[in-house]
Each structure stands twice: as C-alpha cells, then as structure tokens.
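Before the break, one more example. Copy the sequence into your notebook; we will annotate it together after we see the structure.
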Amino acid sequence: MVKMMNKRGGEKLLTFWWFAILTLVVIGIVGGVSLMSYKEIDVKRYEAETLSVKLERCLVDLGKLKIDVLKNCGDLNRECGLNDEMFKGDGAFFYDLELTNSNGARVLSCRDGNLGLKPSCLFDADIKVRTNKFPVCSERNVSLRYYEDKWIDGNVKIVTGSNQNGRVAK
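Here is what the structure looks like once it is written out:
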C-alpha cells in the first residue's frame, strides 16, 4: 500500500474530468438553444384575421356602422389604432373596405397599404394551393345598418392581407 504524502496527482486527474464534463454541458446547452429556440412560422393568416377583426370593431358598434369614421378614410389608421408605418410603400399589409347598401350598390370604399398583394392572395385562395411566398387574405362580410338621412341596411366587406413571415420562440 502506497502512502500519499502529496495529493496533487489526484487533483490533476479530477481537474481533467471536471473540464471534460463542463465542456459537454456547455456544448449541450449551446446546441440545444441554437437548434430549438427559434422556428420559422407562417403568421400571415393570423395577422390578416387580426387586422380584419380590429377594423370591424373600430367601424361597427352593436350592428350599426360608424359612418363618420369610414368617410374619413385618411384618418382611419389613427381612428382604429393602426400603425401607419405598416401600410406605407411596399409594406406587408393592406386593407380594402367596401360599404354597399341593401341593393348591392357601392356606397363608400376605403383602401390602404400594399394593394398589389390583393390579387396574389385571392389567386392563392381560388386554386386552394398553399404557398409560402404568397400573401394570405382574410375576408369578412358584416351586415349592419348605417345612417344617411335615414337608417339604411347595408353590408361592409372587409378584405385584409398580410405577407409577413415571423420568427418566434417555441
């Protein structure tokens, strides 16, 4: 039996294993975070639906159209709490609102955003093909009443679209 007077040799063996285990733990954490923390997802449908719901809530109150808000189309983004920057230039969003009376005649319309997206997303909906690069639209038809010298039954067609992909944490 060997009696150890100086125990430094044992520390050198433990130091190597300690660094080896520490290295494996760090590699595991970094690898796991880099592989699984972010995932590319398609949020276009949810953004388009959220935008259409927000516009509907802004324009319609208990089945009655706030026609003064719709007539003032230039301030619709401010009135409805929408960010103007989202709709400037070749942005990733658009909306197209159309008020028709009970006969189907167009009374009023309001548009903003990148309207070049509308034919693409409607094309995608017609052929029932899902593509990653095409925008996604949401369409809502709301039956309501509005006041212009008298109460008139009508319909508001709200078409919104988004062409923005997002990265979110899982």
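Strands lie at 38-41, 60-61, 64-65, 93-101, 106-113, 136-147, 151-162, 166-169. DSSP finds five helices and eight strands in the chain. Try to locate both features in your own notes.
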